[in-house]
């Protein structure tokens, strides 16, 4: 309720592509209007072709409907996972490194979600600690990129900290 009152679910600040995709599928069934069966059929054929070529259809589908600003971190995370889980000849160590990396990344995701709720609650209460002038400065993007790269390096180093 606080998130909706602070940002509004229809404003775009709280984009929920998964929910919108599910609504697009369920709406025709619930309201009795015609469903886009041709598009469903094309999607099913595409999934079968991708599966035939050993391309995960779910990952491909996620890339089709999730916006780039949400999809790029997924791609980076997949690249980190590939790197961490292929550095050793011992499969057990690779699996342990992958599990540790997944645990660390999950913690960052949960922490980011919690801080998003805390930020919304603070804004709802009239407290806004965001410096809009700094966000308008191009240097803020450079600082954000450096922080992102440091986070990537940390995830790799911490995940690889499992020795033979």
What's this entry about, in short?
With 164 residues, the chain is mainly alpha-helical. The chain contains 8 helices and no strands.
Please describe the topology of this protein.
Blueprint: H1 2-6, H2 17-31, H3 37-52, H4 57-65, H5 68-84, H6 91-124, H7 132-136, H8 138-159
Helix pairs in contact: 5-6, 5-8, 6-8
Query: Could you state the order of secondary-structure elements as H and E?
Result: HHHHHHHH
- Globular, elongated, flat, extended or rod-shaped: what is the shape? flat
Number of DSSP E strands = 0
Task: Work out the strand percent.
Answer: under 5%
Radius of gyration: 20 Å
Could you say which structural class the secondary elements and strand pairing correspond to? mainly alpha
Q: Stretches where pLDDT falls below 50 for ≥5 residues?
A: none
Number of helices: 8
Q: Could you give the distance between the termini?
A: 49 Å
Largest sheet: none
Overall pLDDT, averaged? 85
Work out the helicity level: over 70%
What does this structure look like?
The protein has helices spanning 2-6, 17-31, 37-52, 57-65, 68-84, 91-124, 132-136, 138-159. The protein is mostly helical. The N and C termini lie far apart (49 Å).
Task: Describe this protein with a few key phrases.
mainly alpha; 164 residues
């Amino acid at each position: 309720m606080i998130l909706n009152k602070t940002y509004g679910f229809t404003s775009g600040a709280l984009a929920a592509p998964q929910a919108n995709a599910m609504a697009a599928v369920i709406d025709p069934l619930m309201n009795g209007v015609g469903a886009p069966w041709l598009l469903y059929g094309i999607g099913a054929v595409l999934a079968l072709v991708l599966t035939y070529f050993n391309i995960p259809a779910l990952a491909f589908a996620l890339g089709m409907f999730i916006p780039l600003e949400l999809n790029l971190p997924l791609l980076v995370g997949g690249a980190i996972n590939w790197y961490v889980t292929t550095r050793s000849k011992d499969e057990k160590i690779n699996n342990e490194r992958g599990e540790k990396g997944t645990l660390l990344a999950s913690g960052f995701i949960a922490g980011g979600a919690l801080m998003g709720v805390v930020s919304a609650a603070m804004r709802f209460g009239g407290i806004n600690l965001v410096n809009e002038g700094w966000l308008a400065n191009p240097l803020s993007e450079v600082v954000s990129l450096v922080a992102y790269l440091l986070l990537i390096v940390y995830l790799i180093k911490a995940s690889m900290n499992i020795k033979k």
